[in-house]
Amino acid sequence: MNKEYYNNNAKSFVENTLNVDMTNLYDRFEKHLKKGDKILDLGCGSGRDSLYFKNQGYSVEAIDYSEELAKSASKLIGQEVLVKDMREISYVSEFDAIWACASILHINRMDIHVIIKNCARALKNGGVFYLSFKYGNKEEIKNGRFFNFYDEVSFKELISTIDNLEIIELFTTVDVRPKREHEHWLNIILKKI
């Protein structure tokens, strides 16, 4: 996990991510939701996505492992962001949806099964789960942060070991941040069955 990095770089991280246009991803996720659904923003970072979902009429619970990002996001969204390690979440059938945008990618392959199983347990039956990874099939430390990359094949292998989740969408996108057009992302929407 990259807690120290995000605590030390919270201000620049928020500045670089807060105004990124996520419309395409929101649209793909929201077609599986109904107004008033309860969403867990898992690793909420700047709070950008939590704020969007709140403004669309959803109930949002936001968590982040970084105390500094949680403070900043709390101010932005006007509610407390909980400081939690996603490896230790213990919700049971509480959420209609989970949004994990560029957050679970910081979990190593030894621990990722735990996170995904915890998320499945946190979802109500029929709930949806969005997650994204840098595109590839490797783990690396880059500029002081750990990243776990998946492609279609490696992610399908991972999810095949978890009984109650099925893939409903699997697609790639180009990074929408300026000067990041060469970076690609694997985006997944899962459903609890």
TrEMBL record:
Keywords: Methyltransferase, Transferase. This is SAM-dependent methyltransferase. It comes from Anaeromicrobium sediminis. PANTHER family: TRANS-ACONITATE 2-METHYLTRANSFERASE (PTHR43861:SF1), TRANS-ACONITATE 2-METHYLTRANSFERASE-RELATED (PTHR43861). GO terms for molecular function: methyltransferase activity. The lineage of its organism: Bacteria, Bacillati, Bacillota, Clostridia, Peptostreptococcales. The keyword Iron does not apply. Residues 39-127 form the Methyltransferase domain. InterPro entries: Methyltransf_25, SAM-dependent_MTases_sf. GO terms for biological process: methylation.
